[in-house]
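Translate sequence into structure tokens.
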Amino acid sequence: MFWQLKFHPESKDHNEFCALWLVALPNPIEKYSPENWSDRSKYSVTYFMKNPCEKLNFGKLENYNARSPVWGFTKFCKKDRLPKEGEITIGVRFNKVK
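Result follows.
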């Protein structure tokens, strides 16, 4: 399974927020057989950001499918909570991986 985490420093719909998206990238089998997307529904994820400390439990990925491969937040974190200099760590933790 392939995944891509996308961070947008300015949300398109909410200028004062950052946006974060987890995108499911179909593997060769998933491209031609939508039934294989059901494997992704077995996972749940937690988005996280350190510095500042943000943690959002996103829950099960049961709605991932070939037509809707993106889940995320248009209002992940207010931009004014981000440090003006330095580093931040943004990630996603897959919970209960089988």
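Note: Residues 2-96 form one domain.
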